[in-house]
Amino acid sequence: MNFRTWVGAALCAAGLAAGAGSATAQTAGGTLVYIVQPEPPSLASFLSTSGPIGLVAPKIYDGLFDYDNDLNIVPALAESYEVSDDGKTVTFKLREGVTWHDGAPFTSADVQFTVMEVLKKVHPRGPNSFREVMSIDTPDDYTAVFNLENPAPYMLRALSGYESPIVPKHLLEGQDPRNSDLATNPVGTGAYKFTEWRKGQYVRLDKNENYWKDGLPYLDRIVGRFIPDASTRTAAMENSEVMYGAYGAIPNIDAVRLRDMDGFSVTTDGYSMINPMALIEFNTKESPFDQAAIRQAVSLAIDREFLIENIWFGYGKPATSALSTNFSATGLYKAGLPNYPANADVDAAIKVLEDAGITADGDGVRARAVLDLIPYGEDWRRAGEYMKQALAPIGIELDLRYEDVPTWLKRVYADYDFQINVNYFYQLPDPVLGVHRHYGSDQIRQGTHFVNSSRYSNPELDALLAAGAQEADAAKRSEIYGQIQEILAEDMPVVNLFEMQFLTVYNDKLKDHATSALGAYGPFERVWIEE
């Protein structure tokens, strides 16, 4: 049979041998204190892709794979895989001798349960990642056979401990995973075991002495500190109270200053897997943003270059479509679409509004709305203040609202109690994984985070999304995604603002923290501290 295969066990052994050979310079032991900003709403990464959860949970949970900075597959709970000639069967050979943190053995039953009963049902992106998986066979404890209705090569890019954490069947079976104790007391197979969560202060993870990677992790403990105030976070970094801050934990205004100081460095490594996009979500079911014209006008009135240069200090690239330009490499990005200026076009915005009959009252106001800001730091507050100013000239009057993470998530994704929302999404390595969830009618999943909160529904687009997910021919797939982007540039249920470039600020004594494409969302098993 002609099939594609990858023998991960040999690669893993080679990688560990290389690591052992260079370990003379590495120091085992010690505690890493890093910033988790803001405090996570839970540690249930199988329920929510909220950024703060990603800073903690992948140290506890493994996936079938990890990925290096070139996006190559690195073996984890799966030692190898085979894809059948027709692409409809994927067989994973699982690692033997792995135990859960409570001592129970890890088996193929955990993989089957995780995918079929958890990720496909309650995870924000799982229904798309595993949409083609109809069943999973477990002929023995260390073999999992995924049976697909159609080929789904994108699935192989969605198997990290961050994206698709494998969870313990013996602790979840027979209960609603949304109400599980694992949200506050997680049990995984990863490099670190959950020890303590002191609300408002820190979460502590200790070394898993029975970790399946011999000799790892190097650290004895990692502690994620919650520091709400931005200036205090920066001071903690400068004073070496913390050694690592990612995803805007240190505001860019301070990061560029620390970059030039002795003892600190700044990197954009560790984000290649996520493809982050800053954006605006609209509630398309309620006034005033139930009309495409007003959504287009918002996009036209926003100066993307200003946001990048003055708030994110040059780290970013203006959005020009519903898809990131990074998808150019696979032929899926379409250039030259309307309503995506790099600089504000106020006259064009006003014309769109006037043509749609959205006129101003005696005070020059066409619409009033509350702008909800993602509660992830001061940069987002400043972005909201800018947007309030930027939309005033076209007659849109905004009030700003900034709440804690659980309240914000509930308001936007559970209650739909919002009008306009500033946020960011990960588009990930393939649109099926990161983009479809914004727009598909089947992604209106009340209570699920980071899906179609706009409640936008378009049968023509739904058909194109389904076709794009299944099309194997590159040219045909490119044509389909071109049509998708054309529709979304007109309907604008979501306005992309800019392609983000996150900064990680770290103490130079901290080593090997960016060996995974997931960066801060990686397992941290190879991180060590230089004496």
TrEMBL record:
The keyword Kinase does not apply. Its main location: periplasm. Residues 1-25 form the signal peptide. Keywords: Signal. GO terms for molecular function: peptide transmembrane transporter activity. Residues 72-440 form the Solute-binding protein family domain. PANTHER family: D,D-DIPEPTIDE-BINDING PERIPLASMIC PROTEIN DDPA-RELATED, PERIPLASMIC BINDING COMPONENT OF ABC TRANSPORTER. This is ABC transporter substrate-binding protein.
